[in-house]
Structure formats: C-alpha cells, structure tokens
Design goal:
Blueprint (H helix, E strand, L loop, with lengths): L1 H9 L6 H26 L3 H14 L7 H12 L1 H4 L1 H4 L8 H17 L5 H20 L3 H9 L8 H17 L1
Helix pairs in contact: 1-2, 2-3, 8-9, 8-10
C-alpha cells in the first residue's frame, strides 16, 4: 500500500535546509507517482503496468545524499512486489483506509470505556462491534438486525447471507 508507505517519509524531520529541500522534492515525485497509479487503475493495460513498474524502479533508485531519506527510499524499493500488487490486480485498493476506519471504531470505544474487565467482556465487545460495523457497511440497521436475532424472529437474512447476496449482485453487475 503505497499511500501508507508514504507515512514513513513523514517521520523524517531533517534539520539541514538542503535535506529538507531534497525530502520535499522527492515527496513531490512520490505523490506524482501515486497519482499515476490511481490513473492506471481507471484503465489498466499491460503496457501501462510495465511502464509503472519501470518508473517505480527509477524513482526508488534515487540517491539524494541525505542518508535517512536514501535509507527510506531503499526500504520502499525492497517492498516493490507488495506495494505494486495493483499492477497485477487493478481491483485491489491502493490503501486500506476502510479497514483502518473499522479498527478505529474499536479503539475509540476501548479508550472511552477504559477497556473491558474480563476476556469474555472483550469478546462480547468485539463481537458486538463487528456486527454493528458489518451491518453499517451492508446498509442494514444494526438495531433492527440485533433485535431480530435477540427476539428470535429471524425475519432478516443473516449478515453472511447478505454479504453473499451483495457479492453475487456485484458480480452480475460487473458481467452485465
């Protein structure tokens, strides 16, 4: 996930003005490249994938003379296959922000309630939050879903069935 790799560059805090300039210049090129990957996803071709791979090699073979930046660039180059999975699978997102947002809800809840007291409480809390977040992503009322299950009416399809149905609908939509 190239967008998340970019966070590592934000951790660099050069004191020397020339190092700051080199970092800013490199980050400009970095985010320009990221923009090109976003464009690639819109209309991927094998030729564009090859060009993007070559441009990655060129960008992340840069030597700036700022040791910390050069070290960071080399680490990014070492992760090329992970970071450029999108070239083989354009359907893969360039970031995992949705996953992070889902986890963030759990962290916020934990911080507010100062943690659970038992392992069972933690499991219950995690299960409840998973149901709520999954229902939200599926466009299902979490309240109605939980009420349906607790009351044992089972008038609503399970979340797993809803996920499956939406997956089938998406596949049919893409094919048609």
């Amino acid at each position: 996930m190239l967008a998340h790799d970019g966070r590592n560059y934000k951790k660099l805090h050069p004191v020397v003005p020339v190092h700051r300039e080199k970092l800013e210049k490199f980050l400009g090129r970095y985010w320009d490249y990221y923009g090109k990957l976003l464009e690639f996803k819109e209309s991927p071709t094998p030729e564009e994938a090859e060009a993007a791979s070559a441009e990655f090699d060129e960008l992340f073979s840069t030597k700036t003379g700022y040791h910390a930046l050069d070290d960071r660039i080399a680490k990014t180059l070492d992760k090329k296959s992970e970071l450029l999975i999108v070239l083989k699978h354009p359907e893969v997102p360039l970031h995992n922000n949705e996953s992070e947002l889902g986890a963030r809800a759990q962290v916020r809840r934990r911080d507010v309630s100062l943690h659970t007291m038992t392992e069972d409480g933690t499991k219950a809390n995690d299960t409840f939050l998973t149901i709520v977040e999954t229902a939200k992503k599926l466009g299902v009322s979490a309240y109605e879903y939980i009420h349906d299950r607790v009351s044992k009416r089972f008038r609503m399809p399970s979340l797993a069935e809803t996920i499956e149905a939406k997956g089938v609908l998406e596949m049919n939509y893409d094919a048609g």
